[in-house]
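Kindly review both lines to help learners:
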Amino acid sequence: MNLFNIFSDIEKLDGDVAERVDYYTRRNLFKLGRKAATVAAAPAVLAASLNDAYAQTATVADVLNFALTLEYLEDEFYRTGLATASLIPAGDQAVIAQISKHEAAHVALLKGALGTAAVAKPAFRFGNAFSTYQIFLASANAFEDVGVRAYKGQAPSLLGQTVLTTALQIHSVEARHAAMIRRMRGLKGWISDPAEAPAAVYAGEDNTTQAGVVLTSLSNVTGIDAARSREAFDEILTKQAVLAIAANYL
């Protein structure tokens, strides 16, 4: 969910991040063999690359531990939901369990990169998120949408870097999580209502201007009203906004 944040922050600390990670990624791919070059193996290879490239400097460890805390939150949320008796209907168990495995893989990536410097999982406060299945799904919806919007907020910092492809591979899976959860709630697979709650998660989703173009003014395109203009494009969340949202659960 948060690899864009990780690489953006590392880039600010180390301008040579692209070349450094690229070198060690190639070396680890060679060591781990052809099988490691698959998409499924990318997180493990990248974790090994970060270990080799940075040797766990204190500053980078702080950045990675911040991301790890956010991943802990999602991982704990789905684990708790699956362990709560009579919460998730039998027909939805497999989907939620698979999403949970994906989040566990994200935690494993960061813990592997940090080694002994990894912070322990904090205690989270989920409030009434597990009181009913619909509240659970609404909470999952918000978490997933936060993650997807956070990726886009950091994307400009990754342009031209070799790590962009790996980050996009993970980002696309998180977007599928968000769409799946929405469909399970009986909603469209994309954000269609800018007034969704929590308000902080969907701030800015009423935007109808992209790349300086006011979409509702395109009279030569049929059906481009305000609703379609909003739905066709996702907005970003800044790092500061993501931190403010996450703080509610710590």
